[in-house]
């Protein structure tokens, strides 16, 4: 089946992200014909480090399997491929919380409360199942196009009844969003996860990390966290921040975990602060962010780079005219582009990816489709020329994706460009 098919079933498509312990790929479940996310354990250090990473990886799979809640990413399967463990999870559309704040800036308080409420309910479900997350931060929160708030990456999760997996001198978590009690070496509890929720709310409401942007050194962050702590929001003048929400964030970020509100108290407080729009505002904000990302991706894709080791052989693609002297039959891809394509992508698989992207469009999986079809369009343009039928077909479907995401002006411009190139080609063929 090849190294890009795990367990004889999961065909890897692109790299989504990489952390200290694992890499996450978008993949196709060939058995059920659906898109999934596959997390694979990375090789880490010597035997002791590898053993610790493997135990954490297995604990993540066990923890996720114990939680059944829409606010926690669903796990479908797990296994081992050529000695490397992997977990198969649902593939989420939408954007990450960190991306949303970076794109929009501070969120309106009702929307921040809505995201916080989703996170709180997910944490309550995890805690009820005996699972502590231990790394609650914006990059581990996704918001789908339907407005569903989802906690993911339980890589540091701890099952309450099991001992902690630690290394001497190791700081387990992300200092900007890590509870000071954990930094002091205290045993993790539900209150530490709720601190992470409060720190995320701080980012949503202010647009800046809770411990500021200047302190990038881990030691400096730890000193701030266990010393002065997160700056208070209550009593700040202006900004339209409801005092009830400001006081809740301050309470969640208290130094002593015993002084923080419970998940039930937090949920009740956040529910009081919601708008009565049934989530429409959050969905519209996510849709705008997705649309902006797609437009940027289509018009500014990763650049082709001749330094990458992986080659594309385009000899199998029929050409109606000879390639120009500046067009090479083999291309190399930059790291960014390789994340969007199958490794060792051949001409035949490129055409196959184009058909697969069209099927994604027809199925409504627009975010996945626009990434795939843009990568194919970029490579086709460089290998075959900008007016080759394969290139123009890819660009046509790029425009369809933009139109379906609501980027009408950009879609129309791209449709016009494709139409003009097609007419020019027809006229040249007639001549």
Helix content: 40-55%
Q: What would you give as the CATH superfamily of the largest domain?
A: Transferase(Phosphotransferase) domain 1
Shape: globular
**Largest sheet composition:** 6 strands, antiparallel
Helices and strands, in order, run as EEEEHEEEHHEEEEHHHHHHEEHHHHH
- What distance separates the N and C termini? 48 Å
Structural class: alpha+beta
Q: Counting H and I runs of at least 4 residues, what is the number of helices?
A: 14
CATH fold category name of the largest domain: Transferase(Phosphotransferase), domain 1
| Residue runs with pLDDT of under 50 for 5 or more positions | 161-170, 304-345
How is the topology of this model organized?
Elements: E1 5-6, E2 10-18, E3 22-29, E4 34-41, H1 47-66, E5 75-81, E6 84-90, E7 95-96, H2 97-104, H3 109-128, E8 131-132, E9 141-143, E10 149-151, E11 158-159, H4 180-183, H5 190-206, H6 218-226, H7 243-252, H8 263-271, H9 280-299, E12 311-313, E13 330-332, H10 335-338, H11 347-363, H12 366-384, H13 389-404, H14 408-430
Antiparallel strand pairs: 1-2, 2-3, 3-4, 4-6, 5-6, 7-9, 8-11, 9-10, 12-13
Helix pairs in contact: 3-5, 3-8, 5-7, 9-12, 11-12, 11-13, 12-13, 13-14
Structural notes for this entry:
By secondary structure, the protein is of the alpha+beta class. It folds into 3 domains: 5-90, Phosphorylase Kinase, domain 1 (2-Layer Sandwich); 95-279, Transferase(Phosphotransferase) domain 1 (Transferase(Phosphotransferase), domain 1); 301-430, Serine Threonine Protein Phosphatase 5, Tetratricopeptide repeat. It has helices at 47-66, 97-104, 109-128, 180-183, 190-206, 218-226, 243-252, 263-271, 280-299, 335-338, 347-363, 366-384, 389-404, 408-430; strands spanning 5-6, 10-18, 22-29, 34-41, 75-81, 84-90, 95-96, 131-132, 141-143, 149-151, 158-159, 311-313, 330-332. The strands form 4 sheets. It has a 6-stranded antiparallel sheet with strand order 1-2-3-4-6-5, covered by helices on one side.
């Amino acid at each position: 089946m090849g190294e890009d098919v795990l367990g004889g079933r999961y065909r890897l498509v692109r790299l989504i992200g990489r952390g200290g312990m694992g890499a996450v790929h978008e993949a196709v479940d060939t058995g059920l014909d659906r898109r999934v996310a596959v997390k694979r354990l990375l090789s880490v250090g010597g035997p002791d480090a590898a053993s610790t990473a493997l135990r954490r990886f297995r604990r993540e799979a066990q923890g996720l399997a114990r939680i059944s809640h829409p606010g926690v990413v669903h796990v479908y399967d797990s296994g081992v491929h050529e000695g490397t463990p992997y977990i198969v999870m649902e593939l989420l559309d939408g954007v990450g919380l960190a991306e949303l704040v970076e794109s929009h800036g501070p969120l309106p308080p009702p929307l921040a409360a809505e995201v916080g409420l989703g996170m709180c309910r997910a944490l309550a479900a995890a805690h009820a199942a005996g699972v502590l997350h231990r790394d609650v931060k914006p990059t581990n929160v996704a918001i789908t196009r339907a407005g569903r708030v989802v906690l993911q990456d339980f890589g540091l999760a701890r099952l309450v009844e099991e001992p902690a997996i630690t290394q001497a001198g190791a700081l387990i978590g992300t200092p900007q969003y890590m509870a000071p009690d954990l930094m002091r070496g205290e045993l993790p509890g539900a209150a530490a996860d709720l601190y992470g929720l409060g720190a995320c709310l701080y980012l949503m409401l202010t647009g800046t990390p809770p411990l500021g942007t200047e302190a990038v050194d881990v030691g400096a962050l730890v000193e701030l966290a266990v010393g002065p702590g997160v700056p208070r929001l209550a009593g700040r003048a202006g900004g339209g921040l409801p005092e009830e929400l400001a006081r809740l964030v301050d309470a969640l970020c208290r130094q002593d975990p015993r002084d923080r509100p419970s998940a039930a108290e937090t949920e009740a407080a956040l529910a009081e602060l919601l708008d009565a729009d049934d989530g429409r505002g959050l969905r519209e904000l996510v849709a705008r962010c997705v649309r902006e990302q797609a437009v940027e991706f289509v018009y500014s894709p990763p650049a082709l780079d001749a330094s990458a080791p992986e080659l594309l052989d385009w000899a199998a693609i029929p050409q109606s005219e000879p390639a120009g002297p500046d067009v090479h039959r083999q291309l190399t891809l930059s790291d960014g582009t390789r994340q969007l394509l199958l490794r060792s992508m051949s001409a035949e698989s490129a055409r196959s990816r184009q058909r697969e992207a069209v099927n994604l469009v027809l199925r409504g999986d627009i975010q996945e489709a626009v990434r795939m079809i843009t990568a194919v369009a970029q490579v086709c343009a460089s290998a075959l020329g900008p007016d080759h039928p394969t290139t123009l077909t890819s660009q046509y479907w790029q425009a369809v994706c933009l139109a379906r995401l609501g980027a009408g002006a950009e879609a129309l411009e791209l449709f016009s460009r494709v139409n003009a190139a097609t007419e020019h080609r027809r006229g040249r063929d007639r001549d």
